[in-house]
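Slide 14.
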Amino acid sequence: MASLTTGYKKKAHVKKYLISVLLILWAYNSVFAANFELNIKEKQWLDKLPPLRVGVSNSWLPINFKGDDATHQGIASDYMKLVSKKLGLTLKSTFGTWQELQSKIKAGEIDLLPSVAFSKEKVAYLDFTEAYLDMPTIIATRIDAPHYPHIDNLKEVIVGVGENFAIHARLKQDYPEINTRGYTTIEDAVLALDSGEIDALVTNATVYTYFQNKHRLKTSIHINNTTQYTDKIAIGVRHELAPLVPLLNRALADISDDERDLIVDKWANLNIRHHIDWTLAWQLALPVAIFVLLIFYSNRKMSAEIVKRKEYEEKIVSQQKQLLALWGISSMLDASIKEICDRVLAEIVELTESPYGFYGFLDEHEDVMTIHSWSEQAMNECVVHNQPLKFPI
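Slide 15: predicted structure.
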């Protein structure tokens, strides 16, 4: 009997497809397996069967569910494929909630339930095969809830369960004082636990863990403790098809351990697609983007102010040098024209950072002196600011 782990790891799609191919090959080969044979009467009885209507729960992942392509998917689906190949059965899926499927099989509208846990209430309308899968039942709570050593400790809280699931009947029978609240799907129950609508959830670990991972609730809810219960999953057959049960048991028993391990590995590591909440993403991203833009604008503005301040400081220093030079020249009261010109030329060369320069009187009255400074920087400044290199004295 296969034992299903509760962890759900993301895996590559390639691995999943390879496992599916191996399962298909095994299914075809198992029809001709030497250790599985049907006698003539069994074959004749099976040949007379019409397509069997299989009731599939819409959302009991990863055990039993309706795929995106509207086909039967999950662990139970792979077991049914193997069994149907061995017995030569034709299967037709009918989808619905667990409650709807119960009503339909009671009314004779479907023939098989591929994954059902035994309970005394179901014996009234179902015959069961041997269990092909064991799933432990757990107590799940919010992270901040107290530890519950035993189900008996849940008497003072509201406990969520799957409506009309096997565990629901067990709790009513064994612990009638516990206040249970039924939910159509385990996904609804998991979300109710997270929101605080219920205080605890009692369900099988496999399905709980899937929906906990799907909704990213590991930081808010967790498995508080295990219970004494185990879901033994079998195939349920309506009473009118009771002769099919021993044949199904033989087909299930003929499934090898390797095949069982492949099925568990394929679906226990089912890849969960997380949908991005773009509204929330924009709400988070917009303030960050505005903050970054403000920092960028502030830095640009600060850089521009630093450049302007540096230019202003350089201008102040230049003006100070000019004032000192003029002060020095104006104090030369008794100097000759040549001495004054030499001093002016020296000051101009220093102020313009020129390697050298020269001067001369250009008019006949010798009252206008032109001083040339061979400084590229000074020449560029004169061009930009339209200032001639003429200094009246």
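Speaker note: The chain is about 45% helix and 20% strand.
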